[in-house]
Write a structure and sequence with these properties.
Number of domains: 1
Radius of gyration: 16 Å
Number of strands: 2
Strand content: under 5%
Strand order of the largest sheet: 1-2
Order of helices and strands: HHHHEEHHH
CATH class: Mainly Alpha
Structural class: mainly alpha
Length: 190
């Protein structure tokens, strides 16, 4: 799997889904029960900005990390524009030669940027499915969802399910659509 090409596909799907969200849907509840659609768009926008900054600088000051990942409003009144700008910054940062080998500091440890990218593949794919479910959309890149699920299975250790980072995996038939299986793996009741 080429992580950068996979992330490009994740972001393509994310842009389509975010673009499909109407202003009256921003308050919709999601399967990520703590957050509304707007909250999730805010989260993935802050995350894209944060990961772009980490790729540029190797780390981000704690107060900036808290602002971007801690729920501060980073989308304002233009959620589509803010999300697209954050994605553009992310790709510009990850376009640097050798960036995937660079050691970056995330809230839960230091790792190569390539590993951090895989975390993003799983996290953003899951949240895009959360938004899609809450707004009557579908993520149509099934191969991408299967890849995100496989990445999740490789990186989500049992101890990551304790303490709220991820909830316990929920039951879901192997024959269920990929979008539902990914969400169930992430602890969503589907």
């Amino acid at each position: 799997m080429d992580s950068m090409a996979t992330m490009e596909r994740v972001v393509d799907q994310a842009r389509q889904v975010v673009d499909g969200v109407t202003p009256d849907q921003l308050g919709n509840a999601t399967l990520c029960t703590e957050w509304t659609v707007r909250d999730i768009i805010n989260h993935i926008t802050g995350g894209a900005t944060y990961f772009g900054m980490v790729a540029e600088q190797g780390s981000v000051p704690d107060e900036e990390m808290q602002r971007l990942l801690g729920g501060a409003d980073v989308i304002g009144d233009d959620y589509k524009g803010a999300f697209n700008a954050a994605c553009d910054r992310f790709f510009a940062a990850f376009d640097q030669p050798g960036v995937l080998d660079k050691i970056v500091k995330l809230p839960f440890g230091e790792m190569p940027a390539s590993v951090a990218l895989n975390i993003g593949i799983f996290d953003v794919s899951t949240h895009v499915c959360d938004i899609a479910e809450a707004t009557g959309q579908k993520v149509d890149d099934i191969e991408l969802l299967e890849t995100a699920l496989e990445v999740g299975r490789q990186m989500v250790a049992p101890q990551m399910r304790d303490g709220g980072m991820f909830k316990e995996e929920r039951p879901c038939a192997d024959s269920a659509p990929a979008q539902q299986r990914l969400l169930a793996f992430a602890g969503r009741a589907v």
